[in-house]
Design a protein that fits this description.
The complex is a heterodimer of chains A (93) and B (406).
Chain A lengths: L3 H14 L12 H4 L3 H15 L5 H4 L5 H13 L15
Helix pairs in contact in A: 1-3, 1-5
Chain B lengths: L7 E10 L5 H10 L5 E2 L12 E2 L13 H4 L4 H17 L5 H5 L1 E6 L5 H13 L9 H5 L3 H10 L5 E4 L5 H15 L4 E8 L4 H10 L22 E9 H7 L5 E10 L10 H14 L6 E5 L6 H15 L7 E3 L2 H4 L6 H15 L1 E2 L22 E2 L4 E8 L3 E8 L2
Helix pairs in contact in B: 3-7, 8-14, 11-12
Classes of the chains: A mainly alpha (93), B alpha/beta (406).
């Protein structure tokens, strides 16, 4: 089944890592691809432009694989174009 | 140089920051655990993912400089001169013609005249005016602060600027210290200044995703990033013997400086690099780890820095790490980038002078990855004897200063 969102993520990641998209699959991990923190923020920057969305910092922190990114984006897009409410300030403990 | 190594005293301090326009105001806020972090007012931040910063509030440049002079003073250079004036006045040193020739001015700045450059590009790219202000270059260059200090006091000795991101001021102070110690100069004005609040620059930080949306919580489990700050701070350094002969107040002895490079990654810190810089500073100061009672940490509040720094401190200090007080005053004055090390050096020498350790503000819950006594919330009375002040920069450049009580 074609998955345009997955194709977009893989194309963006291929550009960031300067590799052929064929070398990246949905199951690729950031560790396998050598995606470090600077690659990750560059990928998010690319995806914001390609998908015309804003990706909040907190939504981006936990991604460790291509699948994480795609699932995170799906959740973000499902929430609609409005900026998600900022997470509450950490409670004092 | 053939001169024997001399001991070096800090005899003057000056600081302008979000905590006030002079060093006593900053110190009072640090002792109160009062943070200068608030919503950014100088730039429209409504479209940014973060809104908070540590700005210098209520500064009227016309109260400090005449209009002709201001034409050539970017905000970062204003901070440099204001802090230098306070430090020189505070030291009470008489700048004779001979001494002026033997005085160094070493400053740190990561960005130089960022606001001037931003304004020039708005003129060119947004307003399409096809022209840029003719003073943009001399206002914007990173050494403008050092040159302005040099001209202000007629200081004609060595004068230069270090631009090593967040370690800039520590590199400047450390090199100035070595020059006084070795006898190349007899006085130094050293520190750093930074004015990072411009729209373009804040956008670049937003894209890096390391700025906290709330506040700076160094070493806390739920820390979410750094908070940018601005300001400037300067120290007057001179041979201990000269200071004693003058009979002036000596805040502390600056006794060591250590540098290292991670040679690893542009933004991810290592443990080994900072540890080597701390060891080098201790060696240079001829201090054993057990003699150190306080570290003013780099402590940015990012996940990566704080855990790497805590591990590096454990590696260097071993069991003594359990008896060390470690605080990050960035929780109060923000991360002033090229000025950070200078603000923190002032905080460190005032801690030694006053026997009070400034706290880590905004602390919530301990992080097992940062297993240190971080002096949460409240200042603490203590005589640490000797102290380190850490700065670790993007690019993996580490610079650590060592101070001791006199």
């Amino acid at each position: 089944m074609p998955d345009p969102l997955a194709d977009t993520v893989i194309a963006a990641l291929a550009e960031v890592k300067h590799v052929a998209p064929e070398r990246i699959s949905i199951d690729s991990t950031f560790a396998e691809l050598g995606v470090d923190s600077l690659d990750a923020i560059t990928l998010l920057f690319e995806l914001e432009a390609r998908l015309d969305i804003v990706i909040p910092d907190d939504a981006a922190k936990s991604a460790r694989s291509v699948r994480d990114v795609i699932e995170g984006l799906r959740a973000l897009i499902a929430r609609g174009p409005a900026e998600p409410a900022p997470p509450p300030a950490p409670a004092s403990r | 140089m053939t001169s024997p190594a001399r001991r070096v005293a800090v005899t003057g301090v000056g600081a302008i920051s979000a905590l006030g326009h002079d060093a006593p105001r900053m110190w009072a806020a640090l002792c109160d655990g009062r943070s200068g972090i608030a919503r950014i007012e100088s730039v429209d931040v409504s479209g940014l993912r973060f809104q908070n910063g540590a700005e210098v509030k209520g500064l009227d440049p016309a109260e400090h400089f005449d209009s002709g002079r201001l034409d050539l003073l970017d905000r970062f250079a204003q901070f440099a001169v204001i802090a230098a004036r306070e430090a020189v006045r505070d030291s009470g040193v008489e700048l004779t013609p001979d001494l002026r020739e033997r005085t160094a001015v070493f400053t740190g700045s990561s960005l130089g005249g960022q606001t001037t450059q931003d304004a020039a590009f708005v003129e060119l790219y947004q307003r399409k005016s096809g022209r840029v202000h003719p003073l943009s270059i001399p206002r914007g260059m990173a050494n403008a602060g050092a040159s302005q200090i040099s001209m202000e006091f007629g200081l004609t000795g060595p004068c230069c600027t270090f631009s090593t991101a967040c370690s800039s001021a520590n590199h400047a102070i450390g090199q100035a210290f070595w020059m006084v110690r070795s006898g190349v100069v007899d006085l130094a004005v050293a520190g750093g200044s930074e004015a990072p609040f411009s729209p373009g620059h804040l956008k670049a930080w937003e894209a890096m995703r390391v700025v906290a949306p709330d506040t700076c919580r160094p070493f806390s489990r739920d820390r979410r990033g750094l908070i940018l700050g601005e300001g400037g701070a300067m120290l007057v350094l001179e041979p201990l013997e000269a200071a004693s002969a003058r009979g002036v107040r000596i805040y502390a002895e600056i006794s060591g400086f250590g540098m290292s490079s991670d040679a690893h990654h542009m933004t991810q810190p290592t443990v080994a690099g900072p540890a080597r810089a701390m060891r080098a500073a201790l060696d240079d100061a001829q201090l054993s780890p057990e003699q150190v009672g306080y570290i003013n940490a780099h402590g940015t509040g990012t996940r990566g820095n704080d855990s790497a720094e805590a591990h590096a401190i454990r590696e260097v200090f071993g069991a003594h790490a359990d008896r060390l007080a470690v605080s990050s005053t960035k929780s109060m004055h923000g991360h002033a980038l090229g000025a950070a090390g200078a603000l923190e050096a002032v905080a460190t020498v005032l801690a030694l002078e006053n026997g009070i350790l400034p706290p880590t503000a905004n602390f919530t819950a301990p992080d097992p990855e940062c297993d240190l006594d971080v002096v949460p919330h409240r200042a603490r009375a203590a005589r640490p004897g000797a102290a380190l002040s850490n700065s670790f920069a993007f690019g993996g450049l580490n610079a650590v200063l060592a101070f001791r009580s006199t």
